[in-house]
């Protein structure tokens, strides 16, 4: 289902585009497909949103650039952890939310690729909201986040804190549900120490959903 969605999104890529390259297992199918297209003559420049995506894109011989060299991004293909009916998202399961949000914000078009399990009635139901925070004072930042009524866990990997590509921590905030994602996005980012949170509000143009029945596209 992920592969179906990712390969459909790649159909929107045109020669000469500067492309935002998202992060995650769904996007990896798109990177593989782009690699094949590059082999067959497609000329694109990619802006990776994580070290992992950078590595895969290089293996696929996709030319890379930076936002400094190419500030105008034509199209970004990225994944998500949850999508609601207004195409607002929770992202950051792969820890790349800050770079992903910067790239999404500066993209003319943001296409999200998911499988059908990620479509939810309200954000926060199935997936905790990731918040990237600087290490300094992180436990006080955590206490402040708990005032929003969520249970907050420091993300760990094999017993040690998970470190983002920006050398920060991730705090995963478990809500019962998020009733006002627009307001919560702003309120969380107002806490000193918070770098960015995984609520993507109004940034998505299309969501391509892979399901057992085939592909469905949701458009804003
Ligand atoms: C990374 C992300 C990913 O796009 C999100 O976690 C979805 O990942 P996957 O495609 O592996 O399910 O936000 O920060």
How would you characterize this protein structure?
The structure is a single chain. This protein is of the alpha/beta class and 220 residues long. It has 2 domains: 2-116 and 201-211, Rossmann fold, CATH 3.40.50.1360; 129-195, Alpha-Beta Plaits (2-Layer Sandwich), CATH 3.30.70. The protein is built from 6 helices and 15 strands. It has helices at residues 2-10, 25-39, 51-59, 97-105, 138-146, 181-189, and strands spanning 18-21, 45-48, 75-78, 82-83, 89-90, 110-115, 129-133, 151-154, 156-157, 160-161, 169-174, 194-197, 199-200, 206-211, 214-219. The strands form 4 sheets. It has a 6-stranded mixed β-sheet with strand order 2-1-3-6-14-15, with helices on both faces. It has a 4-stranded antiparallel β-sheet with strand order 8-11-7-12. A hairpin with a 2-residue loop joins strand 9 and strand 10 (160-161). Helix 1 packs across helix 2 and helix 2 (25-39) packs parallel to helix 3 (51-59). Ribulose-5-phosphate (5RP) binds at residues 22-26, 78-81, 91-97, 100. Ribulose-5-phosphate (5RP) is lined by residues 22-26, 78-81, 91-97, 100.
């Amino acid at each position: 289902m992920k592969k179906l969605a990712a390969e459909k999104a790649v159909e929107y890529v045109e020669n000469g585009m500067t492309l935002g390259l998202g992060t995650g297992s769904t996007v990896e199918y798109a990177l593989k497909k782009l690699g094949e297209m590059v082999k067959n003559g497609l000329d694109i420049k990619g802006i990776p949103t994580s070290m992992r995506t950078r590595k895969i894109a290089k293996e696929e011989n996709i030319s890379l650039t930076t936002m400094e060299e190419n500030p105008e991004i034509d199209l970004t293909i990225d994944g998500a952890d949850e999508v609601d009916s207004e195409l607002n998202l929770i992202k950051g399961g792969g820890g790349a939310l800050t770079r992903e949000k910067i790239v999404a914000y500066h993209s003319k078009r943001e296409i999200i690729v998911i499988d059908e399990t990620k479509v939810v009635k309200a954000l926060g139901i199935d997936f905790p909201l990731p918040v990237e925070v600087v290490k300094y004072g992180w436990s006080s930042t955590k206490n402040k986040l708990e005032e929003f009524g969520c249970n907050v866990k420091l993300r760990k990997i094999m017993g040690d804190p998970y470190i983002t590509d920006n050398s920060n921590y991730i705090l995963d905030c478990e809500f019962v549900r998020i009733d006002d994602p627009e307001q919560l996005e702003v309120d969380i980012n107002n806490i000193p120490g918070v770098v960015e949170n995984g609520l993507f509000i109004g940034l998505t143009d299309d969501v391509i959903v892979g399901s057992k029945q085939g592909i469905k596209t949701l458009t804003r």
